[in-house]
Amino acid sequence: MDRRNFITKVGAAAGVGAVAIVTSAQANSCKEKNNEPPLSSVAKNALPPEFMVDEVTGEISQTPGQRTAFQRCFGCFDNCGLRVRVDEKTDKILRLSGNPYCENNSGAPLALDVPVKEAFRGLTGDAGLANRATTCGRGTAATDAVDDERRITQVLKRAGKRGEGKWQTIPYEQALKEIVEGGDLFGEGEVAGLREIRQLDKEAAPGQPEFGSAANHLCTTYLSEHAPRSDFYTRFMYSSWGTRNVGKKSAYCGAQQRLGLALSAVDPLQGAWHAHPDFKEAEYAIFLGTSPGNSGNSLNSLGRQLADARVDNKLKYISVDPLLRTTPSANSGGEWVPIKPGRDTPFLFALMRFIFENNWINTSHLATPNASAAKAKGELHHTNASHLVVIDPSSSRHGKFLRGSDLGMTTDKPVVIDSQTGKLADAETVRDGELFVDTMIDDKNGKSIKVKSSLSILKEEALRTSLADYAAATGISEKKLKQIAKDFTSHGRRSSVMLSTASSSADGFVTGWLTGLLNTLIGSHHAKGGAAYGHGFHKGSKGDRYELSKIADGFAKKELGVSASREGKYELSTEYKTKLANNQPPYPAKSPWMQIAPVGHAGEMLTSHANKDPYRFRAFFSWRNNVTYGNSGLNQKVIASLKDPQQLGLSVGIDCHINETVGLCDYIIPDLSAHEEYAADRMWGSEMKGFSAGAPVVTPRTVKDKQGRHICMERFLIDIALMLQLPGFGKNAIKAKDGRMVDLFTLEDWSARYLANTAMMCKKLPPVTKEDMQWSGAERAMQPLNDKLPAEERAAVAAVLSRGGYYEGEPRYAGDFQNGHKGRCLRLYNEAVTDYIHAYSGQPYPGIPTYRPNHFWNGDSWEKHWSQDEFPLLFSSYKPALRSPYSVAFKRTAEFSPTNYVYMHVDTARQFGLASGDKVRVTSPSGMHTDGELQTDEGVVKGAISIGYGFGHTRGFGGDDRIIDGKLISGIKDRATGTSINPMLPTDPTRSGASLLLDYWTGCTARHGVSVKVTKLS
Fold first, then answer.
1. Is this model's pTM higher than 0.85 or not?
2. Burial of 106 (0-12, 13-18, 19+ CB in 10 A)
């Protein structure tokens, strides 16, 4: 490698902020030879070496008084691997580094069959440069997670009004009894306990049976990014307790984009996709609403991959974003293209329009109508681009595929026009279908009907709006749009477009859908150098050694009714049926119904509670979730309803910290930190089949119960289940594959079986040795699990924990495609979407994405209700590279990323009489505001502002004052810095009562592109 290339690679990787620790025993000998002082005298805070290597024999040994163990990282939701160094005397974490077996931590991950001792030897000396396993700044900051000075380790009960910040410590058993049995718990009157609330024989919403039993009066939110523990939590809530109101963050964290992307390959409700470029062979990439590694994929992994791709395959890429996040260095191949916030959909349609106009599509790929033809051509996927769709509003088949049965054929398969014969044919029988069809045909009854091919319908929609209008909407010139379209299509399949949560506008679902379709048009899905999708991971609840996902005598989700957020078909509701019976128009519905993509919208559940529509909750549980901080636009009516004991009788937070949501609860049950729990989780951005895993590396800090067991979420829910005699817990609670019934009394009972299910699905685990167990910390990790598993399962779990997970080193490619993927039908037109009807308009959703500028639930445009003169700027937010919403609790995070700013272009600031350093107020059309400090530069699109997410914790994580047992604990100033954006964001003025601004298609939360004004504070 020449010097220029070396500098380019190192410079690109430097932005990752990775930290690697490589140590050896050479320090003493160096002192003798060079007369240098010992390291401890030069750097008094220096740690002892991680390992020691004899420079003569090369023998490696562990440093006395330390132990090393594997764990999965939780500095963010990417779940990379970690190796953790612990001081055995103090039981404190010394340092976090990368797992050399894990792809997300190492550019050249070691094979699983490399012994652990040898893997660690490979991290020392010259070999350490090639094998270095790192973690990013988010990961290293999590060193502080266990012993944070504001961590909650005792059981707390509020000692004042809700949200007042006054608490008293109480015994765990007292809290458990009060939560289950209720009573006059706060001197405010009787509070119903869980025993009274779970009324299976009563309706949650009397007269509306679709909303299920009164057990649904328990609403709960949870952390959905930790599979073993979240699966336990949802098993309790859904299957054992029987509530449908189980909310999570997905609906306000980008679910609409991933669900939309998936529509290019699957039907609704059949999964979410998340793409990134296949950096190994990629030549061109579009990053929409992000820049490489900033969100959605491992910063640690993508930083390295991007550096290599810039040099090895001369990758060119653009970041289409309102904010310039990472400055592209000279000759780096990167370019920033500023775009107006919330205008991602017209940008993608502009590219599509120009691509269609120039016929820059992969014709052979698109014309392949079935799997057999794909195989014959050497293709992985086929498409429905040539499938014919009935276009006749008067027909009951309008919007559906033309099928053989419509023409009197014996088949019911979709029909195409065979490009060889020009005749109608079963799509499964031809090699190539005609791509652009717009014609009339006669059906079996002789009726003339209009049909169009899927690709023709999509092309027609793209061409419906002029390129000039797309350019005006995005703020990107026509010339630039044409150049991007040309560049995107000039690299064959070695090109792709990906997006992130920054594209969360009222048409974010369409934005995601379009990214998938653009990748389809050039044939880049799973292609070498094209759009890559992680293999996913083995999920323990799906394994067959133990039946974890089902409970005998428990509930299936379909038995629980519709959630309070109305995730179901409006046409099955009592409201709809009553209107029909009374000869009233059934549309619009009173409130939104989420039909296409039920995502467990915690914010919308709480909005329903505040509006008492269809009912109010009687109890609320929050486990490691912060919906009142994280959900944009969750207004004061919702907060007030959570604070008021008359509107919500019982509220319980289960967490390590008092966050904004937990601070509104009656009780706080302390929980485990990320380094005190068993883990087996998928990794964002990993292309290897596998998962990161770990076990408790230190003793839990939480208080113990009278039996000497540490309190945590699982302990709490198990005890509730036993007190209420709920199914699925206690003696003989879980069925094993061999017919045995095993108990579920402890966290370890669950963790052992979950890990066994996971490990037994791993087909290429190496045999684990005693030496592996000692060097990896697996020996200690297995002690609580050994007596719960038979020998075969015990060995498999030990092998997984000894490598910190499972990373299957399959060949990267199979021919021209990425390895390990099954062929599927890529959908240019998604017929299944047309089965859903919008609950306001009463019209079916179209089978293709449509361009319709941002609009409210009732169809009105944003501009109709929001004055552009009064609110002239467009808002966007972003995720800082080294901060997550909860990592403010890590001391190092405040050092890496101390605060945020209101970013604005210098010309825009000048236009409004503002200057860098001004204290400003940002106000939305709902009248809500947030204050911050203005920073101006040229790295923001004109006419907009951008504010980083994860700051302004004035009511949580120790940034606020609190009183515990009468003692004032002052807030830590560094944790309350910056601007919190979500409380400022607007609601939907076309809805009554408390409301959220929603994606028109999915009901997910919208935030980008909303109108705001910025004024200077005196």
1. yes
2. buried
